[in-house]
Amino acid sequence: MNAFDQRCALVTGASSGIGLATAQALLAHGARRVYLVGRNADRLHSAAHALGAGAVALPGDVTNLADLERIREAIAARGDRLDVLFANAGVAVNNHMGATTVAEYASIFETNVMGVFFTVQAMLPVLADGASIVLNASVAGLKGMPNLSLYNASKAAVRSFARSWSVDLKPRAIRVNAISPGVTHTPILEHGLGMNAQAVVSLQEMLAATTPSGRMAQAEEIAAAVLFLASHAASYVNGAELCVDGGLAQV
Fold this sequence. Notes:
This protein is 43% helix and 18% strand. The chain is built from eight helices and nine strands. The strands form two sheets. Strands 3-2-1-4-5-6-9 form a seven-stranded parallel sheet, with helices on both faces. Strands 7-8 form a two-stranded parallel sheet. Helix 3 (65-77) packs parallel to helix 4 (102-123).
């Protein structure tokens, strides 16, 4: 229960879903301080208040380099070094081949690829040697899910970052791994993919028929896997992808 005793972490996209569940789990397992990053300041401060004294809200947009620099300086001003960085912020939006606009392309790649890249790069000065970076990819990067070609490709890029950065950061003994969730019950289903209640039920029925585990994941299950990769229990896991998808992309 104290795997993260006195350690500091930063979680992006921490207002809800997998990010919020991971921040909560880190604190429950002994983290001294967890910095929460998200674009919606009100929701982020509400999340930090609910999590308690160990949570610190740092509102900001991962696609804005000035925001990232401000967040890094706020961490440095407290005298903290990050032991864990979970680059979780991302968007999932349908795009239709033949009708996709440049704006749609830019929106997805700026958040899911550029945002991840510059989050990690900006935080390098406050990352402790021997720290763990976990990137939120997706099994979508392994599959050809319809009307999601931009999302699929963006998540494949995130998985590639884990390979490259594990080599780039070798001199500092910083491990970099990717978590690849399957379909997870988070607000992205409704707010990103625009699914109504009936569409979510239909998705659940499809997963029951096609996934070995027979259901979609809960955010807490993905968070548990993130904590494993971030912990000393995964000290010899580096550059890897851990699929937490109930078998969806595995069989």
